[in-house]
Each structure stands twice: as structure tokens, then as C-alpha cells.
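>> received
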Amino acid sequence: MLLEKIKQDLIAAMKSKDEVTLGTLRMLDATIKNKVIERRAKGKADPLTEDEVMEIISAEAKKRKDAADLYNKGNREELAKKEIEEINVLKKYLPEELSAEETRGIIKEAISASGLSSKADFGKLMGLLKEKTKGRIDGSRLKDLLMEELK
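>> returned
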């Protein structure tokens, strides 16, 4: 379903001559195709799941966020702006991001359910939380919120 939506939007971007969307979706389509080829090489012929596609989109958005941060540090605002435009295109295909309050609630729930509450349990808690939040919050933001809660 998500792959079909991306392909439809790619065709629509071609027709409307939206260069940013077109370039971003072409890149995304190529990345997805490369992942499928990589899976075939490992002997997995089954198609990508929705979660796997979302992971690819999330990874691409993160790459662009990191690039935009570097461009801003290097006083290259025009390049940073381009990366941010691409992030906005990719965000259309990702689930709504969790707010800080929602994330804190999930963290408190995970701490009470698991019985893990010390800084030594940080890695175990991050594993649980990544599973619960799956692509709905940036990992570094999740880490920061968890560290606040463990203090």
C-alpha cells in the first residue's frame, strides 16, 4: 500500500513538474529497489513489508536531517533548505511523530512494566522503547527523554 502510494505520487510529481518531490521520490524508489535486490541476494524473495519500507523512509529522512545540520554549521543555508524540503516530502509517508509528553508516558509505562529503572538498565529500556515507538520518534530524542526520566 505504501509502495503504491509512493509510485502514484512519483507519477503525479512527474506530471506536475514538482522537481523537489520528483527528485526525492526517485531517490526513495531507487533506495527501495536496492533493498529488494539486496534481499534477493541473501535468498529472500518475499516483498518488503510496510514496516521495512517505513524504516527505509525514516533512515533517508534521518540522513537528510544530519546533512541539513552539517550544512547549517557550514553556513550553507541554501543546501540546508533543500535537505529540509526533501525531509518534508519524506514525512508524508511516515506516521505522526510522538510528542514529548506522549513519549514520556510510554517511557514511564515501560519502566513500570519492566521493573528496570536504573541507568545500568538504559540499553534494555532503549530496546523496549524502540520496539514500542517504532519510527514515531527520533532515536536521539528518545534517548534524551529516557535519560531525563532515569535521573
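>> DSSP finds seven helices and no strands in the chain.
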